[in-house]
Write a structure and sequence with these properties.
The chain has about 180 residues and is mainly alpha-helical. It is globular. It has 10 helices and no strands. It has 2 domains: about 90 residues, RNA polymerase sigma factor, region 2, helix turn helix motif (Rna Polymerase Sigma Factor, Chain: A); about 70 residues, Arc Repressor Mutant, subunit A (Orthogonal Bundle), CATH 1.10.10.10. The protein starts with a helix and ends with a helix. InterPro entries: RNA_pol_sigma-70-like (IPR039425), RNA_pol_sigma-70_dom (IPR014284), RNA_pol_sigma70_r2 (IPR007627), RNA_pol_sigma70_r4_t2 (IPR013249), RNA_pol_sigma_r2 (IPR013325), RNA_pol_sigma_r3/r4-like (IPR013324), WH-like_DNA-bd_sf (IPR036388). This is RNA polymerase sigma factor. It comes from Maribacter chungangensis. Keywords: Sigma factor, Transcription, Transcription regulation.
Length: about 180
């Protein structure tokens, strides 16, 4: 999805709450935002956390996005602001990233995604082995969601994180897990 028209169409669908559009935007721009933050922070965990928060905030605020801006630039700007806030909070030794949003709540509906179907078709032993290949924080959200069957709100409460972050983490974790499963096929 390189061309501008396809991206604009995907953004339009995302503004209408289409889950597949959100997922496609995450897939398309994840490496750009993560790479930018990795250079800035020189820390993989911080870069990943900031990238998750960036998409969380972007999906929550997608209605405010104006087509006069390049979408990637808009995302990078959000991530810069999140990083600046993180640095300020660390200086004050306070880490409190609460937030709520309506748009992201529409992001994940009950219809199983392609990744969900692929994950569900796996033998349990193989699936558990594949989950162990994910980073620990992705393993945790996958386990809480699919094995403990917790709601997004319950996971957010248990991990003391905003629900938006949980949704983006789960989206990313499912994509990474699907890639692991597909690479074996």
């Amino acid at each position: 999805m390189d061309n501008t028209e396809a991206i604009e169409e995907t953004i339009t669908r995302a503004k209408m709450g289409n889950q597949i559009a959100f997922s496609r935007l995450l897939d398309t721009f994840w490496n750009d935002v993560y790479g930018f933050q990795l250079k800035r922070t020189e820390n993989e965990n911080d870069a990943e956390d900031i990238t998750i928060q960036t998409f969380s905030k972007a999906f929550d605020k997608i209605d405010t996005y104006k087509e006069t801006y390049v979408f990637k630039t808009w995302l990078i700007t959000i991530s810069k602001n999140i990083h600046i806030d993180l640095v300020r909070k660390r200086k004050r030794n306070i880490l409190d990233t609460r937030g709520n949003g309506e748009a992201i709540k529409k992001m994940l509906d009950d219809a199983p995604s392609m990744e969900d179907r692929l994950i569900q078709e796996q033998n349990l032993a193989d699936l558990l082995r594949d989950i162990k290949k994910l980073k620990p924080h992705y393993q945790e959200v996958i386990n809480l969601r699919y094995f403990n069957e917790l709601s997004y709100a319950d996971i957010a409460e248990k991990l003391n994180e905003p629900i938006n972050n949980i949704k983006v983490k789960l989206l990313r974790a499912k994509k990474l897990l699907a890639e692991i499963i597909s690479s074996k096929a």
